[in-house]
Amino acid sequence: MVEQDLTQLIRQAKAGDTDAFAVLVAQFKGEVFRHAYAMTGDRMEAEDIAQEAFVKAWYALDKLEHAYAFASWMSKIVSHLCYDRLKKLRKKAALQAEIEEEPMRRATSNIDSANLRFDIRGAMEKLSPEHRAAIVLRDIQGYSYEEIADILNIPLGTVKSRINTARNILKKELSRG
Prior knowledge:
The chain is an all-alpha fold. Helices cover 76% and strands 0% of the residues. It has helices spanning 3-14, 18-40, 43-60, 70-100, 116-125, 129-140, 145-152, 156-176. Helix 2 crosses helix 4, helix 4 (70-100) packs antiparallel against helix 6 (129-140) and helix 4 packs across helix 7 (145-152). The termini are far apart.
């Protein structure tokens, strides 16, 4: 999409034009879904988060200062929603484990797995949400370190540290498999 067209669509959407916003949704839904899926590893959760992200974006469009920053602004919304969802899922899993009094079995075990994708997904689950967000934004979404710092609202050094730590954890986990 040409930057001028994007700017015009955002301007129209800010003015309440739902058709213009629908075009934005169509344009960015794939990227938003991929980001959420990479963070959660669950297709249904990713679809829910993507939908919720666009709803939040619609109601917060007036806070978007620069139209050219729409993609990174959406990434910030998705990252925050994923953090919240992962925290809720962890709390729910911990409560369920207490109730059942048995350790939770990981759904993505690397045991006897020959599928690299499955191994990577399992290794990604070992990462904290903060490390996962950084590695997804850098290695999957392709954002620069500076853009990631802005999206996650953290210092540049923290971004570099999280990505380095995440890569080391992934390397360690994948070498085990």
